[in-house]
Amino acid sequence: MTTSTWEAYAMRYATVQRKRNENFIAYDPHDEATNMDYFVWFLKSDFETILVDTGFNAKAAKNRGRTFLRCPIESLKSAGIALSDIKDTVITHAHYDHAGNTELLPATRFHLQEREMNYATGKHMRHDFCNHAYDPHDICHLVHANFEKRVQFENGDYELRSGITVHWVGGHTMGLQIVRVHTKRGWIVLTSDASHYLENFKKRSPFPIVVNTLNMLEGYELIQKLAESEKHVIAGHDPLTRELYKPADSKKLEIYSLVDPL
Description:
Layout: E1 7-18, E2 34-44, E3 49-52, H1 58-64, E4 67-68, H2 74-78, E5 88-90, E6 109-113, H3 114-120, H4 128-131, H5 136-147, E7 151-154, E8 158-161, E9 164-168, E10 177-183, E11 186-190, H6 198-202, H7 213-226, E12 233-234, H8 241-244, E13 245-247, E14 255-261
Parallel strand pairs: 3-5, 5-6, 6-7, 11-12
Antiparallel strand pairs: 1-2, 1-4, 1-14, 2-3, 8-9, 9-10, 10-11, 13-14
Protein backbone atom coordinates (compact mmCIF):
# COMPACT_ATOMS: atom_id res chain seq x y z
CA MET A 1 0.00 0.00 0.00
CA THR A 2 1.32 3.44 -0.93
CA THR A 3 2.03 5.79 1.98
CA SER A 4 0.31 9.16 1.65
CA THR A 5 2.48 12.24 1.23
CA TRP A 6 1.76 15.44 3.18
CA GLU A 7 2.80 19.06 3.10
CA ALA A 8 4.03 20.30 6.47
CA TYR A 9 4.18 23.86 7.77
CA ALA A 10 5.28 25.75 10.88
CA MET A 11 3.66 29.05 11.89
CA ARG A 12 5.50 31.28 14.35
CA TYR A 13 3.10 33.15 16.60
CA ALA A 14 5.18 34.42 19.57
CA THR A 15 8.74 34.80 20.86
CA VAL A 16 10.70 35.55 24.03
CA GLN A 17 14.30 36.24 25.04
CA ARG A 18 15.88 33.37 26.98
CA LYS A 19 19.09 32.64 28.88
CA ARG A 20 21.08 29.48 28.20
CA ASN A 21 20.42 28.11 31.69
CA GLU A 22 16.69 28.23 30.87
CA ASN A 23 17.15 25.96 27.86
CA PHE A 24 19.76 23.39 28.92
CA ILE A 25 20.37 21.58 32.19
CA ALA A 26 24.10 21.55 31.35
CA TYR A 27 25.27 24.89 29.97
CA ASP A 28 28.24 27.21 29.72
CA PRO A 29 27.57 30.30 31.88
CA HIS A 30 29.48 32.36 29.33
CA ASP A 31 27.12 31.44 26.52
CA GLU A 32 25.06 34.26 25.06
CA ALA A 33 21.32 34.60 25.46
CA THR A 34 19.05 33.34 22.72
CA ASN A 35 15.43 33.55 21.64
CA MET A 36 12.70 30.99 22.03
CA ASP A 37 10.12 30.97 19.26
CA TYR A 38 6.61 29.56 19.58
CA PHE A 39 5.06 27.59 16.72
CA VAL A 40 2.01 25.62 15.76
CA TRP A 41 2.25 23.17 12.87
CA PHE A 42 -0.23 22.04 10.25
CA LEU A 43 -0.23 19.20 7.76
CA LYS A 44 -2.03 19.38 4.43
CA SER A 45 -3.11 16.86 1.84
CA ASP A 46 -5.37 17.33 -1.18
CA PHE A 47 -8.32 16.51 1.06
CA GLU A 48 -7.77 17.91 4.56
CA THR A 49 -5.70 19.85 7.05
CA ILE A 50 -4.54 18.43 10.38
CA LEU A 51 -3.36 20.79 13.10
CA VAL A 52 -0.58 20.02 15.56
CA ASP A 53 -0.95 22.09 18.75
CA THR A 54 -2.98 25.23 19.29
CA GLY A 55 -0.65 27.76 20.93
CA PHE A 56 -1.65 30.44 23.45
CA ASN A 57 -3.56 33.72 23.32
CA ALA A 58 -2.74 37.38 23.94
CA LYS A 59 -3.79 37.20 27.60
CA ALA A 60 -1.45 34.30 28.31
CA ALA A 61 1.35 36.12 26.48
CA LYS A 62 0.88 39.19 28.68
CA ASN A 63 0.71 37.15 31.88
CA ARG A 64 3.92 35.28 31.03
CA GLY A 65 5.90 38.10 29.44
CA ARG A 66 5.93 36.74 25.87
CA THR A 67 5.91 38.83 22.71
CA PHE A 68 2.66 37.89 20.98
CA LEU A 69 2.78 38.19 17.21
CA ARG A 70 -0.56 36.75 16.07
CA CYS A 71 -3.31 34.40 17.13
CA PRO A 72 -2.19 31.03 15.76
CA ILE A 73 -5.75 29.84 15.21
CA GLU A 74 -7.28 32.97 13.66
CA SER A 75 -4.21 33.25 11.44
CA LEU A 76 -5.03 29.89 9.89
CA LYS A 77 -8.06 31.54 8.33
CA SER A 78 -5.81 34.20 6.80
CA ALA A 79 -3.78 31.33 5.35
CA GLY A 80 -6.88 30.05 3.58
CA ILE A 81 -7.76 27.27 6.02
CA ALA A 82 -11.36 27.06 7.20
CA LEU A 83 -11.38 26.17 10.90
CA SER A 84 -14.50 24.07 10.40
CA ASP A 85 -12.51 21.87 8.02
CA ILE A 86 -9.95 20.91 10.69
CA LYS A 87 -11.43 17.65 11.92
CA ASP A 88 -8.42 16.38 13.87
CA THR A 89 -5.88 18.21 16.03
CA VAL A 90 -2.94 16.60 17.80
CA ILE A 91 -2.18 18.10 21.21
CA THR A 92 1.42 17.06 21.81
CA HIS A 93 1.03 17.92 25.50
CA ALA A 94 -1.12 20.22 27.57
CA HIS A 95 1.32 23.01 28.47
CA TYR A 96 -0.10 26.50 28.01
CA ASP A 97 1.86 27.16 24.80
CA HIS A 98 0.63 24.00 23.10
CA ALA A 99 -2.96 23.58 24.30
CA GLY A 100 -4.53 27.03 24.46
CA ASN A 101 -7.22 28.37 22.11
CA THR A 102 -9.02 25.02 21.89
CA GLU A 103 -12.36 26.77 22.35
CA LEU A 104 -11.75 28.35 18.91
CA LEU A 105 -11.95 24.92 17.30
CA PRO A 106 -15.45 23.64 18.13
CA ALA A 107 -15.51 21.24 15.17
CA THR A 108 -12.25 19.43 15.82
CA ARG A 109 -11.37 16.25 17.68
CA PHE A 110 -8.31 16.49 19.92
CA HIS A 111 -5.81 13.63 20.15
CA LEU A 112 -4.09 13.56 23.54
CA GLN A 113 -2.23 10.90 25.46
CA GLU A 114 -4.43 9.65 28.31
CA ARG A 115 -1.52 9.85 30.74
CA GLU A 116 -1.13 13.56 29.89
CA MET A 117 -4.69 14.35 30.93
CA ASN A 118 -4.27 12.21 34.04
CA TYR A 119 -1.13 14.17 34.91
CA ALA A 120 -2.60 17.60 34.15
CA THR A 121 -5.69 16.96 36.29
CA GLY A 122 -4.09 14.80 38.98
CA LYS A 123 -2.43 15.19 42.34
CA HIS A 124 0.95 16.34 41.00
CA MET A 125 -0.54 19.68 39.95
CA ARG A 126 -0.41 20.80 43.58
CA HIS A 127 3.36 21.24 43.09
CA ASP A 128 4.48 24.54 41.55
CA PHE A 129 7.38 22.78 39.82
CA CYS A 130 4.90 20.60 37.95
CA ASN A 131 2.07 23.05 37.33
CA HIS A 132 3.77 26.27 36.31
CA ALA A 133 3.69 25.51 32.56
CA TYR A 134 0.02 24.48 32.64
CA ASP A 135 -2.94 26.86 32.47
CA PRO A 136 -5.93 25.47 34.39
CA HIS A 137 -8.31 27.26 32.02
CA ASP A 138 -6.81 25.40 29.06
CA ILE A 139 -7.14 22.10 30.90
CA CYS A 140 -10.79 22.89 31.68
CA HIS A 141 -11.47 23.56 27.99
CA LEU A 142 -10.10 20.10 27.19
CA VAL A 143 -12.32 18.63 29.91
CA HIS A 144 -15.34 20.34 28.34
CA ALA A 145 -14.30 19.00 24.92
CA ASN A 146 -14.18 15.53 26.43
CA PHE A 147 -17.75 15.95 27.71
CA GLU A 148 -18.65 16.83 24.12
CA LYS A 149 -17.00 13.56 22.97
CA ARG A 150 -14.26 15.47 21.11
CA VAL A 151 -11.15 14.13 22.87
CA GLN A 152 -9.55 10.94 21.61
CA PHE A 153 -7.42 9.56 24.43
CA GLU A 154 -4.42 7.67 23.10
CA ASN A 155 -2.17 5.19 24.86
CA GLY A 156 1.23 5.00 23.21
CA ASP A 157 1.90 5.07 19.47
CA TYR A 158 -0.77 5.28 16.77
CA GLU A 159 -1.30 6.02 13.09
CA LEU A 160 -3.49 9.09 12.66
CA ARG A 161 -3.56 8.87 8.86
CA SER A 162 -1.57 7.11 6.20
CA GLY A 163 1.71 9.02 6.32
CA ILE A 164 1.18 10.42 9.85
CA THR A 165 2.19 8.48 12.95
CA VAL A 166 2.25 9.77 16.52
CA HIS A 167 4.61 8.45 19.20
CA TRP A 168 4.64 8.78 22.98
CA VAL A 169 7.97 9.91 24.44
CA GLY A 170 7.18 11.45 27.84
CA GLY A 171 10.16 13.10 29.49
CA HIS A 172 9.19 16.76 29.33
CA THR A 173 5.70 15.85 30.59
CA MET A 174 4.03 12.55 31.40
CA GLY A 175 2.22 12.36 28.07
CA LEU A 176 4.34 14.24 25.54
CA GLN A 177 3.96 12.87 22.01
CA ILE A 178 5.83 13.59 18.78
CA VAL A 179 4.55 13.48 15.19
CA ARG A 180 6.19 11.71 12.24
CA VAL A 181 5.07 12.88 8.79
CA HIS A 182 5.75 11.48 5.33
CA THR A 183 6.59 14.34 2.94
CA LYS A 184 8.06 14.69 -0.52
CA ARG A 185 11.53 14.93 1.03
CA GLY A 186 11.04 11.91 3.26
CA TRP A 187 9.95 11.32 6.83
CA ILE A 188 10.19 14.39 9.07
CA VAL A 189 9.64 14.49 12.83
CA LEU A 190 7.88 17.34 14.62
CA THR A 191 9.50 16.99 18.02
CA SER A 192 7.40 19.56 19.86
CA ASP A 193 9.00 19.79 23.32
CA ALA A 194 10.83 16.49 23.08
CA SER A 195 13.53 18.81 21.73
CA HIS A 196 12.96 22.53 22.16
CA TYR A 197 16.12 23.30 20.19
CA LEU A 198 18.02 21.18 17.67
CA GLU A 199 20.94 21.47 20.06
CA ASN A 200 18.98 19.60 22.76
CA PHE A 201 18.64 16.68 20.36
CA LYS A 202 22.05 16.79 18.70
CA LYS A 203 24.03 17.13 21.95
CA ARG A 204 21.65 14.94 23.99
CA SER A 205 21.40 17.91 26.35
CA PRO A 206 18.03 17.92 28.20
CA PHE A 207 15.76 20.92 28.63
CA PRO A 208 15.34 21.93 32.31
CA ILE A 209 11.55 21.48 32.46
CA VAL A 210 11.40 17.71 32.73
CA VAL A 211 9.38 15.08 34.57
CA ASN A 212 11.60 12.12 33.64
CA THR A 213 15.11 12.85 32.36
CA LEU A 214 15.72 9.27 31.22
CA ASN A 215 12.58 9.35 29.08
CA MET A 216 13.75 12.65 27.60
CA LEU A 217 17.11 11.13 26.66
CA GLU A 218 15.42 8.06 25.19
CA GLY A 219 13.15 10.42 23.28
CA TYR A 220 16.18 11.81 21.47
CA GLU A 221 17.04 8.27 20.39
CA LEU A 222 13.51 7.71 19.12
CA ILE A 223 13.60 10.95 17.14
CA GLN A 224 16.86 9.79 15.55
CA LYS A 225 15.25 6.48 14.62
CA LEU A 226 12.05 7.94 13.16
CA ALA A 227 13.48 10.83 11.12
CA GLU A 228 14.95 10.34 7.66
CA SER A 229 18.08 12.15 8.88
CA GLU A 230 19.04 14.83 11.38
CA LYS A 231 18.04 17.37 8.73
CA HIS A 232 14.50 16.00 8.95
CA VAL A 233 14.14 16.87 12.65
CA ILE A 234 11.96 19.93 13.38
CA ALA A 235 12.61 21.28 16.86
CA GLY A 236 9.72 22.70 18.86
CA HIS A 237 10.93 26.21 19.66
CA ASP A 238 14.11 26.80 17.70
CA PRO A 239 14.55 30.15 15.88
CA LEU A 240 16.69 28.19 13.40
CA THR A 241 13.45 26.99 11.81
CA ARG A 242 13.12 30.43 10.25
CA GLU A 243 16.63 30.15 8.81
CA LEU A 244 16.43 26.57 7.61
CA TYR A 245 13.09 26.62 5.73
CA LYS A 246 11.52 28.77 3.04
CA PRO A 247 8.66 31.13 3.90
CA ALA A 248 5.45 29.71 2.49
CA ASP A 249 3.25 32.81 2.50
CA SER A 250 3.23 36.32 1.13
CA LYS A 251 1.04 37.81 3.86
CA LYS A 252 3.73 37.97 6.54
CA LEU A 253 2.08 35.27 8.65
CA GLU A 254 5.51 33.72 9.23
CA ILE A 255 4.57 30.33 7.85
CA TYR A 256 7.49 28.12 6.85
CA SER A 257 7.37 25.12 4.53
CA LEU A 258 9.09 22.20 6.26
CA VAL A 259 9.44 20.35 2.97
CA ASP A 260 11.41 23.20 1.34
CA PRO A 261 14.78 23.73 3.04
CA LEU A 262 16.76 26.83 2.15
